[in-house]
# Entry
Amino acid sequence: MDLPPRVSRRTFLGGAAATAGMLSLSPVEFARWTAAGSPLAALPQGRRRQSEDEWDSYAKLHFNENPYGPPDSVMQAMQHAFKFANRYGYPDGDILQAITDLHGVRPENVVLGAGSGELLDVVGLAYLTDNDKRVVGSDPSYGSVYQQATSIKADAIKVPLLDDYRQDIPGLIAATKKHYRNTGFIYLCNPNNPTGRIVTKREIQRLLDEIPEDVPVLIDEAYHHFVEDGDYGTSIPHVLDGRPVIVTRTFSKIAALAGMRLGYAITTPEIARRLQAHQTGTINALVKWAGAAALKDTAAQAHVKQVTLDLRKKAMADLHSLGFATIPSETNFFMVHLKRPVQPVIEEFQKRKVLVGRPFPPMTEHLRVSVGTADEMARFAKAFREIFPGGATGGSND
Ligand code: PLP
# Structure
């Protein structure tokens, strides 16, 4: 389990718990976030309360969010849906139809979730609760699935990334074959969080060709919308081929609806039914309408992608000019190799009102930076120069 190294019980109960209140997470959700080593731990610690003004004062480059907020089309859809606020039953904005139209699938292939995080949990509940089942996945990757496995007393078989920080597909195949009888499912985050690297279409095909056919594969495409690399492709066609593949998508990133909680899974009807039996989250009226509007506003998504990638490329070039190496990214975040422990540097950024990603063991010398607005990225660049006045070869001011 990748607990954040610097989160003591005291800070957990003090500042971090107050932060949970500020961020509207339930205590259970918050415990999960922090235990998973969430970047929540990077918020100011040791404080009882944090005002909205203070929250506003931070450049928030730690959660891979969309910093621009929903476009007008989506805001209007939510405004409209307020009239359902007092109802249990209401028209849902045709969210399911919008998803099936987009992917050319049937309603039976879709499972909606209160964020894709709910769906990742549900896959764990559906496939890891039998005797001694394990999830096979890469390390580091998005920690939620592994954390869920731990919380339901299941286990994870983690395969280290390759030297170039790509996922080790032959390694995942070998681990699955070796532990076939205990493998509940394989988890593949594509592109991967925290590294931003993709698994190619050919690699996914190879994985599916070489593992036993009945092993479910959960492919988390949270950052799908930011990918430019032509070797990448969504894994939804494998679902239509009848493989036990579950593809998850979220409205929290490109669609800027993280606080509203909506995601979905595309899978076979059999798997969909199995997942639905374990669902507990509820999806509110506003976000159903918002999600449908977001899928239709392709121009807004294209704009977010363009500005995000431009700012990412600029930030990375800037770091290269200072002598720092970065990992090639296909997402709205990137990692820079600091060649020194990242935790004190995170704290230096925090002092300068810039929140950056938490450490991702074993990559404890890499800093994950989400791409914010132009203003936030300028604040990041300024803080970086202050913390590393001599560039990569000089010392640092932490
Ligand atoms: N998957 C990945 C790879 C993520 O990075 C995140 C959030 O950061 C999620 C899933 C969960 O997203 P949500 O529950 O907001 O849809």
Summary: The chain has 15 helices and twelve strands. The first helix runs from residue 9 to 22.
